[in-house]
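In response to reviewer comment 3 from the previous cycle, which asked for concrete evidence that the modeling workflow produces usable outputs, we include below a single protein chain processed end to end. The sequence was submitted unchanged, and the resulting structure tokens are shown without manual editing.
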Amino acid sequence: MSDSVLSQVDAEQATIIDYNHQVISKKIIDIANGIDNYFYKYDENSISLENKSYIILEHVSVFEKYGHRDNKFRLRGKLDLPNTKRHLKLFFDSNNDENEELNEKILASRENNRNEDSSIGVESKEQKLKNWQRKFRLGLRVNANIDAYAKLSFRRKDDLSDIWHTESRQEFRYSHQDAWGSNSTIDFIRPISEFSTLRFSTNVYYRGENDFFEMAQTASLLKNLSHNRSIEYKLGVLGSSGLSPETTDYFMGLHYRTYFYRPWLIISLHPEFLFSRENNFALDPRFTLKLQMVFSDKTK
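The workflow returned the following structure tokens.
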């Protein structure tokens, strides 16, 4: 899928939508290249590096019982500067998730609960540090106030056996408004077949502003149904430290993802069943519909 949209479909099949999508995608790449050129002066010996800039327009609808519905739009993206010294990327997000709670990260139906903070900033390309890959991000969160923050991320992969391996991620973040926090994640992964993967995940969030821990334990089975369709079954439990450690939620659900019309238009369906302490662990069915339009030189 490395070619442009109009090269992916026959000329007779291409519509005005395809044409406009390609025009906008090319404009994004041109803007990124213009910024890149400002910091790096090309000459006849320069090597042109691929620009992986993109912008994603996203709409999320959450349907709850009793007919309640919540809608939210989100615009996010990165402008790639591949020729800068540290291969920097400029990022922006209309619905910043840097300080989201763990349950908002794990549960699709709570994604719209995030604070409506916008963020802009710069991040470095991943660099190798022994067995770890590290990345640094520096940005501003914009709401009623402007808050600077920094985040340092590490990740690594390890083989436990011929069939099991782990993926570990560690993040440290700091902001003037929320003090510091961390996110620790480890996944135990086993391929079941050529198209199916079993994953057990443990997440621990720490929020320094109120000395508060959140924990999650999940199990999931991912099946690739075709090159453009997948389904993931998931169940798990969430907890927090609070005044004393306690279980806050049990959940089960699935995530179905497929292309819609073209590879740059993606639809995701998330039916979930929640059992929350705040509702005395009564059944709370929810359904989340997410539509994403990706503008890029390549389909993401």
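Residues 67 and 131 are 50 Å apart (CA to CA). We consider this sufficient to address the reviewer's concern, and the full set will be provided in the supplementary archive.
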